[in-house]
Write a structure and sequence with these properties.
This protein is α/β, with parallel strands linked by helices and 344 residues long. It is 42% helix and 15% strand. It has an 8-stranded mixed beta sheet with strand order 1-2-4-3-5-6-7-8, sandwiched between helices. Helix 4 links the parallel strand 5 and strand 6. Helix 2 packs across helix 17 and helix 8 packs across helix 11. It is globular.
């Protein structure tokens, strides 16, 4: 990767650093990663968009990499993350940007479009179809018509009585943090493989027991590195960053589920009119578990949806597994948005 992309920058948001990497100049596109990602997860897109005439900015989301890592779980709410994004946008001197989100970054960009649409020129949502929460309320309708709620943590606990569920295992600080902090290379190697097109997360989960740790559940790769989409240098970068920063911040994105559930109640029934492109890997286990009805719900609730792209031969890490193709979809979308008369 070129030095200008590797050079990290930070913005202060009420005492919490927002780290990011930047390439190119021109109309602004901001990338938000998920778990366990980094600004580095967008390395291919940064270079491609810069070459295509855009200012591409990839964020280390709160808790990760070069960004601040508050201890308090409440500091990871979508309200706080949205504040990070707005502080970054202000610091970059721009009123609006196209926001691209993957995994946990996708609920972030959905939230931005709901709460401050005037600052969102367009959305590229990846791997997580539209909902108000990561583990959401799909189909519940308006707040005053919603049935009595069961908090996400309660849903996780009920499911985990009979089967392993990572979202439940991650809820309490302590053992999960220690397991991942002690074995970052093993964890990253297994999760990257198991959620890729060549892995099999659903089979791994089907054979898991409630009392297992996550490393016991995730399968060891069938192939040693390098893989087609991840070489040893890139993998070692991930390991070094997570060794330095630990996993407690990233795991807090799971632990804040109940808080986000309450905050997001105000969005029930609201639709997103922002121009939107959805991209996912055809073999993404998140999409398999979400089912085709999740796409139908997204079509209903996102009138601004311009297209759904499902890429064959890609799993959950679609922007890395099929980097060139994803980059081109984003470039084409960004060109169409910034070609509108209001941006000329």
């Amino acid at each position: 990767m070129k030095d200008d992309i590797l050079n990290a920058r930070t913005v202060d948001n009420a005492g919490v650093d927002v780290g990011y990497r930047q390439a190119g100049s021109g109309p602004l596109v901001i990338f938000c990663h998920g778990f366990p990602g980094l600004s580095y997860s967008w390395r291919h897109q940064l270079q491609a968009l810069a070459a295509a005439g855009f200012r591409a900015v990839a964020v280390d989301m709160r808790g990760y990499g070069g960004s601040g890592k508050p201890i308090d779980v409440a500091a990871y709410s979508l309200d706080h993350i949205r504040s990070d994004m707005m502080s970054l946008l202000d610091a970059l001197g721009e009123e609006r940007a196209i926001f691209v989100g993957h995994d946990f970054g996708t609920p972030v960009v959905w939230n931005l479009a709901l709460e401050c649409p005037q600052r969102v020129a367009g959305l590229v949502a990846m791997s997580v179809p539209y909902d108000f929460d990561y583990y959401g309320r799909r189909g519940m309708g308006h707040a005053d018509a919603a049935p009595p709620e069961i908090l996400p943590s309660q849903q996780f606990a009920a499911y985990a009585e009979n089967a392993f569920l990572h979202a439940h295992y991650f809820q309490q600080p302590g053992s999960a943090d220690q397991e991942l902090d002690d074995n970052p290379a093993a964890f990253l190697r297994r999760i990257f493989w198991t959620l890729s097109a060549e892995g099999d997360l659903l089979t791994a989960f089907s054979g898991a027991k409630p009392d297992m740790g996550y490393l016991e559940v995730l399968t060891e790769p069938d192939q040693p590195l390098p893989w087609d989409w991840l070489d040893e240098a890139a993998f070692n970068h991930y390991v070094a960053v997570f060794k330095a920063g630990g996993f407690s911040g990233p795991l807090n994105w799971y632990r804040v589920a109940d808080i986000n559930w309450q905050l997001n109640r105000r969005y029930l029934g609201q639709k997103i009119h922002t121009p939107t492109l959805f991209i996912a890997g055809q073999q993404d286990p998140v999409m398999v578990m979400s089912g085709p009805e999740s796409l139908d719900f997204m079509r209903e609730m996102v009138p601004g949806l311009l297209g759904i792209v499902q890429i064959t031969g890609a799993g959950h890490w679609v922007q890395q597994e099929k980097a060139d193709l994803v980059s081109q979809y984003i470039i084409d979308f960004a060109r169409s948005i910034y070609a509108e008369p209001s941006y000329c």
